[in-house]
Every structure is written in C-alpha cells, then in structure tokens.
Amino acid sequence: MLLEMRNITKKYPGVIALYKVDFELRAGEVMALIGQNGAGKTTLVKILAGAVRPSEGEIFLKGKRISIKSPEVAYSLGFSFIYQEGGLINGLSGIENIFIGRHYPKRRGIINWRELTKNGEELKKRFNIEVELKKPVEHLSPLERKKIEILKALSREPKILVLDEPTASLTKRETDQLFNIIKSLKKHGIGIIYISHFLDEVFKVADRITILRDGKRVAMLPLEKATKDMLIMYELGEEIKTFKNIGSQQFQKEKALEVINLSTSSGLKNINFTLHRGEILGIFGLGGQGKTRLAMTLMGNEAILDGEIKIYGVKVNISSPMGALKKGIVLIPQDRTKHGIIEELSIAQNLTLPILSKIVYKKLPLVLNLKEEKKLTYKIMRELNIKAKNHRILIKNLSGGNKQKVVIGKGILKKACIFIFDEPTQGLDIKAREEVYEHLIRLSNKGISQIVISSDIDELFKITHRIMVMKDGTIKNILPTKETTSHEILSISYGGNNEHI
C-alpha cells in the first residue's frame, strides 16, 4: 500500500472536522474522494499537505510511519497538490511557473533559459503532455493552465498527486483530454487522489471511491460495485429529489432583452437573440468561444462596435457594470469568491452593498439603518435558505453553496429583472447544486429572466427553456431544450451544424 491513514481525527473548538477516518491509496491507482461541502475532504487533504496537524491518528507511506509537520515536509515526502483555485502566477510563462521556487539552472550567474526550457520539454515528453511553455500563463486556455499545473507538480517527482476539482473550468472535450493525462500518470506508478463533485467523472476516471459524510468515512468501495444512486445516498444519507426539465413550461412572450446585430472589440460577431420574461436561456460552447465575453458585454465591460441592446423594448447604452446594474442586469460571476463577494464582510454587509443608498436614514444619509439592514438580510436568508448562525457571520466562513445564495440575494434585493449566471454551480456539491436550481426556477416563476452559461450540458437540460450554442464568437443555433439532445448540442459546438433558429 502506498499511503495509509488510520483513525484520523481533527478537532477544532466546538467542531469535529474528522472522526476516526481511514483512507488508503495504492501506487498507480486513482482513488476518488467525494462528499458534500463540509464533509471533511478539505481537512483530510490539508493534513496530507502539512497545513493542518491531526488531533489523533497515524499516517504511513509505503509502510513507514510519517509525520507531515509542514508543506515543505509534504513535498519532500513525495506529495504534490493541484487545487481548484489554481496556483499559477500571471505575468510569468509556463516554464517559469513550473520551476518557480526551485533553483533555476545558471550559467555565469545568469539563469540558463535554454537549460530550463530543455528540462521543461523533457518533462512534457516523459509524461506525453503537450502545451506551450513560453507563453505567459494568463494567455493560456483553462486546459493549458491545468497542464502547466500538472507539469509543475510532476517536476517534483511525486509519489502521490492530489487533484482538487480539476475539471471545474473545463469543457467536456478538455475534460476527456485531462483524463487521458491521468491514465498516463497511472502508468508511471503515481497514486492519484481525485476530488470531485461530478459523479459522472468519478465513474470515468476512478478505480476506487472513498465517501465522507459529516467528518466520517461512510464507505470505500471499488468502482465496479458502485452506482450513482448509491453514491448519492452515501453522500447525503437521504434520497435527492430529481427535477423535471422545465423546458416544457411556457415562459411569457414579452421580450425582456433583445440583442441585435451585436459586434464587439473582443471578437463577438453579429450576435442576435431574444430573452423573454421569465425565460431561462442556456448558453453552451467550448472554451474560448465567446460565452463569457457575451456576459461581459451585457455588463458593460466590453466595447460595442456595432449593434444595439434593448431592455423591455427600450434601447439602452451600457458602458459599465454600474450602468448594467441601474438597467436591472446583474451578473453572478464564475468565481464567486473573487468577484461576487467581499470575504471580510458579513452576510448582511455583502447582501446590502448594492442598495446602501436605500438603507440609510433620510435625514442622516451617511448613517446606516441597521434595523432595516437586519430586516432585509433575514428576509433573503429565509427566502434562499442561507444557513448561518446570524446575519453578522463573516461570509468567508460559509460553504460554497451558501456564498452563491448570498450573491443571488444581492440581485434580488437590487430588484434586478435580468440575471446572468456564469457557471452557477461550479465547485458545489450535489445538494447545493439542486438548491441553486430550485432558486433559479423560483426566479423564473416570478417573471425574472435569466441567462445561464454552463459547461455542464446536463445542467442546462435540467433548468433551461432554450439552449444557445456559441462557436468562434458567433451564435450557431438556438434550440428549445425539450426538442433537442445533448448529442445535437455537442455536435453544433464542434462545428457540425450552422443552421440558426
């Protein structure tokens, strides 16, 4: 056995994050580690990374008991980690990111770039990973960035590689390419711990599965003995409700948003579509095809070269996010932690940030009405089922699902008429995803129009009325969800059908 963790317990004041957890990993094996947010996965990984010390328990590497006292010790023992948030530094090239923190080869006191590049190319060849090394990483696609992170981890010659939600920002095709890389790593004898909320991925890539719930290991089983329903039951301890596709529900004919012959400086070309009152319009496409650029344009972050935008029949000029907000458009961003909330503020402060002018005393416009702030905050907390002890809890202490609800709540308090969701359930567990779907459907039933950008095609089939497919900065097709299939949507996104409806 490559790695064994026995009776691992981690206690914090008033909280037991892990209780007598056993975990194991063989060389050349992919062990999936699954569970809801808060189940204990992150704590377990932090113990392996040397960021957290266990309160009780033992860890063995190849049969020898070890003590992981720091991240430096973890790396020296052969552990490498690739986290969901990413660990690359913009402004540096791929090759610089791969070897940063180590001694670069030097010649006469100057970095020997030829030797450094040679080392990187040899690493690529050894593990059959093709990626440009000289480009600044901010110019790379999500998959290319992930490849650089993998090469960075492999440059330390790890025995164990931990992948935390590695496909969160990848398309299906990119995900398949990543799985091929993982298969190659297995052949080199590297043990892989694969953390994911996407069970379909687990069945494609894992050899065995460990499930945590409420800080305890509830099951460990080989892939061939697992079913999706079984894993959900283990994760939740209850059955999850299933949603019927809402595409058969009729949205209103009134046009909430019209985009006419829109072209932008960022490469969008001749964009034409209509979003109706109460409609949920999905947008699908491969990486870099224009989905997020369209969202940024509607929010006033991209220069419009030609065309026009109408909101409820009125032509509007949106030149900034503040301008979009004033017109009733809100964006729920892909990276909710970086762009959707301020982590050092409370739930109440985050929720009421867009409406501060409405919760100050009329005679004292610089003084907040804390009673009104509390009233509005608890209204949203009840409506969206935000789980927290009180409204003053710092938002950084909430789970990912509850953070996403706060971001949605900001739009509700602002009384937005159009919501744009960019990857709304990225990084959320099964139950949190289903709760987000519920809230989107409730918004639709209230007549609020929504655009949902997602790389999860199954998600779009669950919650949308129509699906728009983008490729090369253009709209290739718009199809009623109930009249299409995932195969047809993928075919169009790969260039198989250019007919526009």
Task: Report a brief summary of the structure.
It contains 17 helices and 22 strands. The protein has helices spanning 41-48, 71-77, 94-99, 113-127, 142-154, 172-187, 199-205, 228-236, 291-298, 321-326, 336-340, 347-352, 370-384, 400-413, 430-445, 457-463, 486-493; strands spanning 3-12, 15-25, 30-34, 56-61, 64-66, 79-82, 106-107, 110-111, 160-164, 191-195, 208-213, 216-222, 255-264, 271-276, 280-284, 304-311, 314-316, 329-332, 418-422, 449-453, 466-471, 474-480.
The termini sit apart by 57 Å
- How helix-rich are the residues, as a percent range? 25-40%
Number of domains: 3
* Number of strand elements: 22
Uncertain parts: 497-501
Q: CATH top level of the largest domain?
A: Alpha Beta
Characterize the main sheet.
6 strands, mixed
Q: Classify the beta-strand content into a percent band.
A: 15-25%
**Mind telling me which CATH architecture of the largest domain this is?**
3-Layer(aba) Sandwich
Instruction: Give the helix tally.
Output: 17
Helix-strand category: alpha/beta
Identify the CATH homologous superfamily of the largest domain: P-loop containing nucleotide triphosphate hydrolases
Mean pLDDT, as a whole number?
Answer: 88
Q: Write down the Rg.
A: 24 Å
Strand line-up across the major sheet: 6-9-10-3-11-12
CATH topology of the largest domain: Rossmann fold
* Coarse morphology: globular
Would you mind describing this structure in some detail?
By secondary structure, the protein is α/β, with parallel strands linked by helices. It folds into 3 domains: 3-236, P-loop containing nucleotide triphosphate hydrolases (Rossmann fold, 3-Layer(aba) Sandwich), CATH 3.40.50; 242-328 and 416-501, P-loop containing nucleotide triphosphate hydrolases (Rossmann fold, 3-Layer(aba) Sandwich); 342-415, no CATH class. It has helices at residues 41-48, 71-77, 94-99, 113-127, 142-154, 172-187, 199-205, 228-236, 291-298, 321-326, 336-340, 347-352, 370-384, 400-413, 430-445, 457-463, 486-493; strands at 3-12, 15-25, 30-34, 56-61, 64-66, 79-82, 106-107, 110-111, 160-164, 191-195, 208-213, 216-222, 255-264, 271-276, 280-284, 304-311, 314-316, 329-332, 418-422, 449-453, 466-471, 474-480. The chain has a 6-stranded mixed sheet, sandwiched between helices.
